[in-house]
Design goal:
Order of helices and strands: HEEEEE
Shape: globular
CATH topology: SH3 type barrels
Strand content: 35-45%
Strand order of the largest sheet: 4-3-2-1-5
Largest sheet: 5 strands, antiparallel
Number of domains: 1
Structural class: mainly beta
Oligomer: single chain
Length: 113
Amino acid sequence: MDLVETLNQQYMKSELPEMNVGDTVRVTVRVKEGNRERTQAFEGTIIAKKHGGINETITVRRISYNVGCEKVFPVHSPSIVSVETTRRGKVRRAKLYYLRDRVGKNAKVKERI
């Protein structure tokens, strides 16, 4: 088991910001198109965090063109360039799946000061 743990520690990112459910984050991802490579930002609210350690994932939701879009990002993936927390959210539960049914101002999360 020590071998598995050492491999996990080797590939885990250490410079991640503190991010919790309800926070608004900007995830910058490295996208490969053919032989070119570029970065693309995805900004939204974290509605779920799952697993832990090297397998940790966050589900980020945003509304674009009046359609809800969710993406699941493995936090320690090498394709993720950076994760920036832009706004802290004040929530009382671990999973914010109820935001899927909300529209407009009801879909907002209060800001924690």
